[in-house]
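Predict structure. Chain length: 262.
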Amino acid sequence: MRHLLLAAAAALALSACGQPTSEAPVAPPAAVEVSPDAANIVAAVADARRPAADRDRDASRRPAEMLAFARIEPGDRVADIFPGGGYFTRLFAVAVGDEGRVYPTIRPDGVAGEYETPVLAVAAEYPNAVMARTPYDALAYPEPLDVVFTAQNYHDMALTAYALGDRAAMNASAFAALKPGGLYVVIDHSAVDGSPVATDAETTTHRIDQATVRREVEAAGFVFDGESDVLRNPADARTASVFDPTIRGRTDQFVMRFRKPE
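Prediction complete.
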């Protein structure tokens, strides 16, 4: 759940003096930042159920920083779009606690049949992880969400052979799925600035221009709410495929957070 600090002290002081508060502009509420050292995040990263393969990836994926950036708190409702093998699903399930819920999300027919089995296994381990089978461009959940999260997969929506759906519609349905003030977090591999969006699955480097993603997400009504440099790698020229052995696991990645207005 999003906990907000009210920044209206000046207006309240004027009101107490009998002055009309309408003449005193009030700053919008500031969101409480979440620390990577928060107890719920520390517990998520330390969860003994996490497989060794996930732990081995922590140095490059920086899970504590990513959960803190997404402002994951106990009780939150979180959608994990394109959950892959469930790396973030496991983390979210512990970080939101027993009162929270995480929805690992795959389209009704899976993603080329690859991801349904591992995600079902993850969901079976965590009672508060509930599978959501919904088209990516028509996201739908049984309750309003605090966070919609997707890591390293936004670029795949453009690949025509994958037929995953329309990016604009996905962003619009993510907007509709969130509570007012809810957050949409997008992590992906950086392409060269100004690069066109790749559509050919055979030739793609599996990267996307950050500016393109920001423009598309803001077009859905979101407000840009910040970015993190934690996954940046200036040594990555951004031209090789993310699966190239010379850069795999060390790509330059952008991390952006968007907010649905109150």
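Summary: The longest helix spans residues 167-177.
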